């Protein structure tokens, strides 16, 4: 790979900006100052450094699980809150895309990748990958209200603004204000809207799993690469 292209991919500098730092003598390749933007570098074996910082680029598709904390936006450009990529230390963050976003106040499993077809398989309802959500309700629901909600959710609910009911899902109550909801689709704000259908409000929401992927071993803000076996199951 050309050195100026390598620098652009590793730092998100433009090719023009990359040439400027080269001409300034700020870049070394294998401990030697290099000013030639056309120099070919081996992305796996050559050590490229910019003012003492080692640089790298992605050499294939990445598949990442992040335990998203509250207070972070599922976007790649900052708006009102910190963004999730601030929690992930890999090169070329701009090429990553998100499978199934979570609201700022929602925690839990989030998958990111630069493999577009894989992301589609993860999110497409036709592939029937279940997502498990744990939720806390503002108002207690007694046994009769719980039984009604469980039945309606299993049948499918026509939410305001939709033309088709939700796909059948599984709702399990842990107690009067805590429940677990298992879905095979991901409509906009679906969990919150489904509970709103019953006159209630979700005040805490956590995505515990996506398909076979759980958060076991991770703390909030932690991330890890998926194994080849985990990737292949989607």
Percentage of β-strand residues = 15-25%
Poorly predicted spans = none
- Radius of gyration of CA atoms, rounded to a whole number: 23 Å
* H/E series: HHEEEEEEEHEHEEHEEEH
Q: First CA to last CA: what distance? A: 32 Å
Q: Please identify the structural class as seen in this structure.
A: alpha+beta
Using DSSP, what is the number of strands? 13
- Summed up, the helix count is 6
Compose a concise summary of this entry:
By secondary structure, this protein is an alpha+beta fold. It is 22% helix and 25% strand. The chain is built from six helices and 13 strands.
Describe the protein's architecture and organization.
- With 234 residues, the protein is of the alpha+beta class.
- 22% of the residues lie in helices and 25% in strands.
- It is built from 6 helices and 13 strands.
- The protein has helices at 3-11, 15-23, 116-123, 143-155, 190-197, 228-232; strands spanning 27-29, 32-33, 48-50, 53-55, 63-68, 97-99, 107-113, 131-137, 170-173, 178-183, 202-210, 213-214, 223-225.
- Strands 5, 6, 7, 8, 9, 10, 11, 12 and 13 form a 9-stranded mixed β-sheet that branches. A 4-stranded antiparallel β-sheet has the order 2-1-3-4, with helices on one face.
- Helix 1 (3-11) packs across helix 2.
- The longest helix has 13 residues, at 143-155.
- The protein is elongated.
- 24% of the residues are buried.
- The model has no long low-confidence stretch (mean pLDDT 90).
Main attributes of the structure:
single chain; 234 residues; alpha+beta; 9-stranded mixed β-sheet; 6 helices; elongated
